[in-house]
Amino acid sequence: MTVHTDIDRATIDRGTPERTAAQSVTLEIDGISVTVPAGTSVMRASSLAGIQVPKLCATDSLEAFGSCRLCLVEIAGRKGTPASCTTPAENGMKVFTQTDRIAKLRRGVMELYISDHPLDCLTCAANGDCELQDMAGAVGLREVRYGYDGENHLNQKKDESNPYFTFDPSKCIVCSRCVRACEEVQGTFALTIDERGFASHVSAGMNEDFLDSECVSCGACVQACPTATLMEKTVIQHGTPERSVITTCAYCGVGCTFEAELQGDRVVRMTPYKDGKANHGHSCVKGRFAWGYATHKERITKPMIRKSITDPWREVSWDEAIAYTASEFKRIQQKYGIGSIGGITSSRCTNEEVYVMQKMIRAAFGNNNVDTCARVCHSPTGYGLKTAFGTSAGTQDFDSVDQADVVMVIGANPTDAHPVFASRMKRRLREGAKLIVIDPRQIDLVRMPHVEASYYLPLKPGTNVAMINALAHVIVTEGLMDEEFAAKNCDAAEVKAWREFVSRPECSPEATEGVTGVSAKDVRAAARLYATGGNGAIYYGLGVTEHSQGSTMVMGMANLAMATGNLGREGVGVNPLRGQNNVQGSCDMGSFPHEYTGYRHISEEGPRKLFEKDWGVTLDPEPGLRIPNMFDSAIDGTFKGLYVQGEDIAQSDPNTHHVTSGLSAMECIVVHDLFLNETAAYAHVFLPGASFLEKDGTFTNAERRIGRVRKAIPPMCGMAEWEVTMKLSAALGYPMHYNHPSEIMDEIARLTPTFAGVSYDKLDELGSVQWPCNEKAPEGTPVMHIGGFARGKGKFVLTEYVPTDERTGPRFPLLLTTGRILSQYNVGAQTRRTANNVWHDEDILEIHPHDAENRGIREGDRVALVSRAGDTSMRAHITDRVQPGVVYTTFHHPESGANVITTDYSDWATNCPEYKVTAVEVRLTNRESRWQEDYAELQKLQRIETVAAE
Ligand code: SF4
Ligand code: SF4
Ligand code: SF4
Ligand code: FES
What global pTM score does this model have? Predict the structure, then answer.
């Protein structure tokens, strides 16, 4: 049997999906003996034996369909010529893939296809990358006896409506691969084969354009299409790629692996990598198509400085920019003290970049004023899961969802924010797993094609903890706890205290109904389902963490999982869906003011001595400032210098007025980014950054998976971020010595027990690993806490519900909650600079029909959105996806000022802002708010007035 390498595995299309049955069968194909798992198709078995049977409608990402009849084989003792893609391999079978009879039949099939196909191979964009062309060659087609003059489809009109791909029906062979990809891989069901026989054709929606249909532009159909019918516009424009680099998507925390396909230094296509362990060859519109920002004309590629933020920018050399920054930071520290400067690391940067940044702050700045944008999203996850289980991370890998029987989604919107994982989850739900959704807004998952939640609990914003206590109350008082699990794995006294606490009448669904707004009956039914429905898996997002009780809620979910024994195996767990590509990594890398890498507290002498010895410095044992404290201290006049890497705090942080007051009070702000973002309007130094396509390093996704980011093109600004940090650190008097990011990872591994086994060699060998990766788990840890918790006994914490101080009242009677949309990403700095704007070019306020009617608001009206913190305006969309009393918007466009509205309230444990609950009023208006007018003025001033370098 032929032995195939890993690269072969990823590139050879074996025609039908892998089977993993425990039993195997042995058969003979063209005289070669091959053993495969039971259920494997003859086509796949042939491929594993090194024989590629011709095929058109089959591909190994989809179940066999058996429509094209090109893959016919003969089997000893059987009549006819069965299709190898739909015939399972059996013990003792003798298969013949190349006989005269089969060859003739295959040529006949190909003749029919080609007689109704344009003969423009030489000028076709898919020339050399077309399976139809390949198959014509493979079957030895030399002539088409039917001629080309009969009735045909050659004059069909192209659909160019999608900004990223073209649909040219004249080239379609109606193999249905696109339809099946949309159903099986993506789970959107946007395509059908309409009509029958000769008239049959692929139809998006109800014979609509792709753009107007349900299509979400994931590109799975484009990837599955064996012809040039569905084709990336970049490939049509620039031609087929000539080389590829395997790397990791820089958008969300799913962390999809891609092949960046290039011609020279131009990316022409991003293809999700089949062996990518987070995505298994799938992607969403952002990763696959929205990479054009990397070469957008607004990229700043030269360092710039200015004395005052009202001066024009002056382009300077890297040396001058670094020297100026170092002299300013030194001046500030001399004048205001060692703690007067700090830095913010980025969850968009690599682990290695984050590591050297926090090292520079601790060792060269000489303080612990380092924080990360995870402060404003998942810091409660770190705190809550570490408290409960001993590890600041999710418990499972994504594949675990395949074993889940009950999926509980709380405060997350996977189809928009984590689309590739959502497709996986939807597939499991279509297979029969049950779904519970807890969210103030009716997310798509609640009801979509072939998926419907068993229970949707539309709670009021800010009442998560009351809800989790009510679910726990039912589980405890109805005797649904997994007593054995709790007794074995948790502290008996803590279990007892928690049991008594949640059993109290005030925690019951009936008592909390008035708080959460959800019927007690539904809460009871959902609790029973989670506790008794088999493997129960919780997935959650920022709708949990971004609350004044964010950490409490994380611990509440951990309690629920421990009480039901839903931990320590596949199909269960407590799983944060992380927002940014490297938010897990930026936390792991010691970005918080109180922790070194691996979440070790800086006040503990052991870890501190370890770092002091390795780094050759004395380190401050006192935690430094968190991001909100940096703004407060700036306004107080004690914090004067800030280095912000890859984060736009002026747009993303809550209470914009407060943030910009803090920024305006500082004397030296350094922004290190791709574009002149909103924060850059307050900056004195701009250091150009490198996009993910331009750097080497690693990202860590939501399942603790460390994946390689590989340089596909050289950095447009000449330097990667870690090199810039090294230069600045040296200019401040603390030189670091790395020649390549792999050396930074070696240092991380040396100093961090959970990373001890990680190296670039291992990542290259295995593709990716999930930490902990060390002597105990040399190939990483897909599922945590098997056989016991990382902290020893799992900790039950009492989670008393404390209502947020942000209250509705006569002036502000509605609650605003916020979220993301599929096509845009966070502050939009990347996606707004792509064609994704076609789907979402402004932020819109969703409002319930009753609330709209009470205020005389009609669809599309401009409305003022006012809170205690500020006011803005946007257009209204009337929908019953939000409940009465709740309004919702996204925050992708700076001019909509969503964070002008949000308040300073934050999680009690971590200061994660309470973005998800703001009391507001909405009223009709015909003008922009004062803040929006000021913002427009500031933008005019900032619109890059630059003095070019000599
Ligand atoms: S791009 Fe994705 S969602 Fe759209 S039709 Fe193709 S597979 Fe379906
Ligand atoms: S568009 Fe492509 S994948 Fe879809 S039926 Fe036509 S040839 Fe097959
Ligand atoms: S799901 Fe996330 S990581 Fe995957 S392609 Fe989309 S944005 Fe990128
Ligand atoms: S590949 Fe088997 S019938 Fe099409």
Answer: 0.93
